[in-house]
Amino acid sequence: MKILIINGPNLNLLGIREPATYGSQSFDDYLKVLKKDYPHLQIDYFQSNVEGELIDKIHEVGFSDYGIVLNAGAYTHTSLALADAISAVEIPVVEVHISNVFKREKARHHSFLSPVCAGIISGFGMASYRLGVEALLDK
Ligand code: DQA
Fold first, then answer.
1. Does 101 sit in the ligand 1 pocket, CB within 6 Å?
2. Which residues are marked as active site?
3. What is the value of pTM for the model shown?
4. Exposed e or buried b per residue across 63-100, where buried means at least 16 C-beta atoms within 10 angstroms of its C-beta
5. Ligand 1 centroid, distance to 49 Cα (angstroms)
6. Across all residues in the chain, what is the average pLDDT?
7. Is residue 139 very low, low, confident or very high in pLDDT (cuts 50, 70, 90)?
8. Residue whose CB lies within 8 A of the most ligand 1 atoms, among 96, 108, 129, for a mutation test
9. What CATH number does the domain containing 38 carry?
10. 13, 16, 71, best to mutate for ligand 1 pocket (most atoms within 8 Å of CB)
11. How many structural domains are present in the chain?
């Protein structure tokens, strides 16, 4: 069973970027543990700072993988194009955020993606990704 975790812009800097908000663990370190905890799953990972590359990746796996755990970063709040890509594919997409976006600035309260995603997980630190995987497995 293949699950793809996608991280959007600036999330390549996890561990370095604003640790008070996003923690001090790199995504690579987190992913190693996650993969070990789900040996029966194939958990793939893709990160890009480029909107079109995120869209291409959703198209690529969106008719064959089991599901996507997506942290689209700031594109969450701006990208109708990403929302259209999620609508266009067949597999479920779970929207995740490390921080609780509703505790933050107003601009982060709106998501173009939530209405087309299976659900949202926000505010549990890196564990948001694990909860995203669990949500897909529960579907
Ligand atoms: C984020 C929240 C977004 O508002 C922000 O732009 C990010 C990260 C999160 O994981 O908490 O880049 O998606």
1. yes
2. 22, 97
3. 0.97
4. eebbbbbbbbbebbbebeebbebbeebebbbbbbbbbe
5. 13
6. 97
7. confident
8. 108
9. 3.40.50.9100
10. 71
11. 1
